[in-house]
Amino acid sequence: MTTNDPARWWRQTRGERATLAAIVVLGAVLSSWNLGRGGDLSFYAAAARSMSESLPASLSGSFDPGATVTLDKLAGFAVPQAISIHLFGMSTASLALPQVVEGAVTTLAVSVVVLRWLGARAGLVAAALTAGTPIFVSMFGHPMEDGLLTAALAVALVWWQRAALTRTWWPLLTAGLAVGVGFQAKMLQAWMVLPALVLGTVLATTGAGPRRRRAVGHVAVLVGATVVASLGWSVVVALLPTADHPYVDGSTDDSVFAMVFGYNGVDRFLPGAWPGAVGALGHASAHAADAWRAVAGHRPGHSLLQLVTPRYASQVGWSWPAALTGIVVGAVRWWPGRTVREARVPTATFLTLVVWLGTGFVVLSALTLPHTAYVAGIGVQLAALAALGWWSAARLVDAPDRRLRLVPVSLLVVQGAWWAWLARASSEPTLLAVLAVGVTVAALVALLVRWRRVADAPSTRVVGSRRTTAGLLVAAVVLGPACFSLQVLDASRDGSGSDASVGVAQGAFARSGGAPTRALAIGRSPVGRGPGHTDTTGFSVSAPDPWGGQTTLPGEDRELVAAARRDGGGRDGAPLFLTDSWRLAADVIGATGDEVLTDGGFSGQVPVFTTAQVESLVRSGRTRLLVVAAGTPPTDPVRQAATDLGCRVVQRWGSALGQSQPWQSRGGSASTLERCS
Predict the structure, then answer these.
(1) Any stretches that span the bilayer, and where are they (predicted)?
(2) What value does the mean pLDDT take over residues 561-573?
């Protein structure tokens, strides 16, 4: 690692550049194999469609084209999706395409960090580990906010490292901006990297006198840029008059900070702690005991070791043995010399990755993870530290001290055992598991045979043997996750936009035997399989489906839209209708792009409209059609307005609107179209 002029891939050999390009392309091919099959939850797909057609909706992160209500989270993740839809039209694949690009960016970013830290070969190993990490392969093939978050934090690490190498402050502005982009994608989860970057900055720049002041200044630049980029949009929304911005979903008082820090933050740990957040139905003290049990790991079905259980370790944890090897060897190698100027940046990079990994592990272990993709929060760190483990083991193969040669041997033994257990526990196809574990055993045998023969072998044979051993060692570190990820070639083993994962489904939607039938309203299912179904009978390669994806409405939804249009809905720029079910609104917006006013938000608890406001909209002529979901209480604003105004029933529909689900908005499986004169 050199200073002032950091290493770049275009300055490496042609073979190394070609290898990196091949890794990136192969990763993109895997992620794109089922791009046209697995769509997003219709709520967020509809928002991306709205943002693609309406500048106000795009600027405000709104659910509907008319920008009357925002999403229940910051909508930065949907901006690339909206651009893609605007360019290529609405389809499952155009929704997911930006995530494929984000996956390539993540792979390149990790490879750059390790290139500047350990050299080109370690950089290639890190790239292969990133591109082959199962949760990345599935997540970057589906429209999920975790993709932009992961790419943004990987880019932030690149620019932080550049600042440390060049001893300049301006790259920290870019690093902070990148963390802010991650915040716009998934809010507080992006800030998990901040403690690591701050500690790394202090270690890389601290010293006596002017150096100490420079360290303080660099930290201030990093933190300041992060805060501004993270909170800038929210502050603008908070300062605008209520009439000049959409109602903020996730809050009961139209507060963007209640949505960001309450509904999507504090309330996940301490329900009720943030006033105005949806779900904050009581005081924090009433929930303190439950929250403590959650953090302490006493919650039913929750374990503080969940990240090393097969469900999650099979998605992100194949590299744990290599990463732990890297942590141990790195601590021995760099920590004693951390005050030496030449060792500051390598040590700072090592510390940053370890602290970031530790922070992510602790936070994700304490949470009940609603989606498997949350574990992507430790994927970048594991890939980089596992590359360090490979680099350390490869350098110790011919160590003069034979005790140090136990490092690569131990790595191979533990790695092989870990892979064998994970493969069995996660039902990996036998052929793929045997290939990965078999190469690890072959690497171990080759290493032992080499040590026996190296003393008597000619120098040319020693060089050839060293290259063979190094190649097998690379395979023994990379093949485990890569082979497991090959299961995405079978469309039934590639997860979904609701729960990205690879292999036999074990996520939130697998507990009842399959995903909800309408969670993928904008996607299409593999031939012969229902949405969310996971085939456990065997692994077979599906035909590639990299483009397209249905955007048509179910039959009864089409009838509802047609009936609304016959009664004047959508005429002269008016909304098609006003409803209290986001599920119906999402399908209509996603398929047609028409404006549909929606009350209740994602949770069904958000007072987007009062009864008086609904009645005012009807009397003003802006809309005269209401769609009331069955089962809503009499106090529901849309139902109450329909009753007060004496609206006439135009038509009723039955079960086509889908089965009632925990995340469904107000109402059941039936609805009524009513016309108000």
Answers:
(1) 18-35, 96-115, 122-141, 191-209, 216-240, 318-336, 348-367, 373-394, 406-424, 430-449, 470-489
(2) 89
Q: Is 672 helix (H, G, I), strand (E, B) or coil?
A: strand
Element (H, E) at 549: none
- Within 8 A by CB and 6+ apart from 511, the residues are none
* Confidence tier at 489 by pLDDT (50, 70, 90): very high
Cβ count within 10 A of residue 616? 13
**Per-residue pLDDT reduced to its tens digit, 412-428:** 999 999 999 999 999 99
CA triple 497-501-506, angle to 5 deg: 110
Per-residue pLDDT tens for 129-140? 999 999 999 999
pLDDT tens profile 401-411: 888 888 899 99
The residue written with tokens 């744990």 in the block is 320
**Residue closest to 167 by CA, chosen among 211, 208, 209:** 211
The per-residue b/e assignment along 113-145, b for 16 or more CB within 10 angstroms, e otherwise, is: bbbbbbbbbbbbbbbbbbbbbbbbbbbbbbbbb
**Which of 31-40, 206-215, 498-507 comes out lowest in average pLDDT?**
206-215
* CB 117, CB 37: distance < 8 Å: no
Calpha distance 29→34 (Å, rounded): 9
3-state DSSP assignment of residue 570: coil
**CA separation (Å) from 338 to 5, 202, 207, 360, 649?**
21, 12, 12, 24, 76
> CB of 237 within 8 A of CB of 256?
yes
DSSP readout, 403-457?
TTTHHHHHHHHHHHHHHHHHHHHTT--HHHHHHHHHHHHHHHHHHHHHHHHTTTS
Q: What's the rounded Cα separation, in Å, for the pair 477 and 48?
A: 39
Tell me the one-letter amino acid at 484: F
The whole-number pLDDT of residue 298 equals 47
CA-closest candidate to residue 94, choices 547, 543, 591, 495: 547
Write the DSSP string, 369-395.
-SSGGGGGGGHHHHHHHHHHHHHHHHH
Which phi and psi (to 5°) does residue 598 adopt? -135, 130
User: DSSP H helical segments within 524-581, as ranges?
Assistant: 555-566
- Widest Cα–Cα separation across the chain: 98
**Could you report the per-residue pLDDT of 522-551, keeping only the tens digit for each?**
444 444 344 344 444 578 888 888 887 766
Output the CA–CA distances (angstroms, integers) from residue 620 to 267, 573, 614, 626, in the order listed: 39, 14, 10, 14
Convert 338-361 into a string of H (helix), E (strand) and C (coil): CCCHHHHHHHHHHHHHHHHHHHHH
Q: Residue 152 corresponds to which tokens in the numbers above?
A: 């943004």
pLDDT band at 496 (very low <50, low <70, confident <90, very high): confident
User: What residues contact residue 133 under an 8 Å CB cut-off, 6+ apart?
Assistant: 315, 316, 318, 319, 379, 382, 383, 481, 485
In angstroms, the CA 394 to CA 126 distance is 14
Instruction: Quote the pLDDT of residue 40.
Output: 66
Rounded to 10°, the helix 459-485/406-425 angle is: 20
Q: What is the mean pLDDT of the chain?
A: 84
